[in-house]
Amino acid sequence: MLTRDVLFDSRSAALTAALGESIGRMLRGGELLALHGALGAGKTQFAKGLARGLEAPGDEPVVSPTFVIVREYAGRVPFLHADAYRLTGPEWTALGLDERLAQGAVLAVEWWERVADDSPLRPEVEVTLDLPPDSDDENARRVTVRGRPEWIERWLAASAEIVDRLARPG
Ligand SMILES: Nc1ncnc2c1ncn2[C@@H]1O[C@H](COP(=O)(O)OP(=O)(O)OP(=O)(O)O)[C@@H](O)[C@H]1O
Ligand SMILES: [Mg+2]
């Protein structure tokens, strides 16, 4: 059960990516990450950081997978970055990514909520990007990371450097 939420206020795309990198470093393969948030919230920026944390080579830029649906990067483990924005549940299933996950790939899915009901998969971590309340800074984002309490504790303990650079509301 994903019962623990940790909130951050990010002030730049680079900080959002750094947060993603800290999570990417924790992943060992076989994890599904759900990335939630409105268009332009920063899900792809976050995924760029995940790729770094998974040691995907820097010459493969992580770009929005919207038009290709899924992109694959070769890191410590295969990293699959998918966008479910335009997919139906059956179209998602037909991609066969469940099997890739079972074989040890890491799967990060933007707009996971669109296909979640049609998939037997359950995310290991859910990340939500929002505009923070009462901010007129166009680079401000509220990032909520949700996971199992013990996973969150391990991640925070291993990630003090980035965690200290971000404000922790609430
Ligand atoms: N704090 C921040 N965190 C993340 N992105 C930011 C931040 N501040 C500004 N940005 C900018 O917001 C944009 C986020 O775009 P991105 O493609 O990551 O959004 P997305 O959530 O993946 O959208 P889509 O649903 O269309 O795929 C980028 O241009 C990025 O530079
Ligand atoms: Mg995107």
What are its keywords?
170 residues; alpha/beta; Rossmann fold; seven-stranded mixed β-sheet; 7 strands; binds adenosine-5'-triphosphate
CATH topology: Rossmann fold
Enumerate the spans where pLDDT stays under 50 for 5 or more consecutive residues: none
What is the subunit arrangement here? single chain
CATH architecture: 3-Layer(aba) Sandwich
Q: Name the strands of the widest sheet in spatial order.
A: 1-7-6-2-5-4-3
Total domains, how many? 1
So how many helices?
6
Structural class: alpha/beta
Give the number of DSSP strands.
7
Cα gyration radius (Å):
15 Å
Q: Could you say which small molecules are bound to this protein? A: adenosine-5'-triphosphate, magnesium ion
* Biggest β-sheet strands, sense, barrel: 7 strands, mixed
**CATH classification class:** Alpha Beta
- What is the element string, with H for helices and E for strands? EHEHEEHHEEEHH
Mean pLDDT: 93
Give the fraction of residues assigned to helices.
25-40%
Q: Please tell me what the overall shape is.
A: globular
- Proportion of residues in extended strands: 15-25%
The CATH H-level superfamily is P-loop containing nucleotide triphosphate hydrolases
CA-CA gap between termini: 21 Å
Walk me through the structure.
The chain is an alpha/beta fold and 170 residues long. The chain has one domain (4-165): Rossmann fold, CATH 3.40.50.300. Helix content is 30%, strand content 25%. It has helices at residues 13-24, 43-53, 89-94, 97-102, 149-158, 160-165, and strands at residues 4-10, 32-37, 70-74, 78-83, 106-110, 125-130, 141-147. The chain has a 7-stranded mixed beta sheet with strand order 1-7-6-2-5-4-3. Strand 3 (70-74) and strand 4 form a beta hairpin. Helix 1 crosses helix 2 (43-53). The longest helix is centred in the N-terminal third of the chain and has 12 residues, at 13-24. The chain is globular, with a radius of gyration of 15 Å. The two termini are 21 Å apart. The site of adenosine-5'-triphosphate has 18 residues, from helix 1 and helix 2.
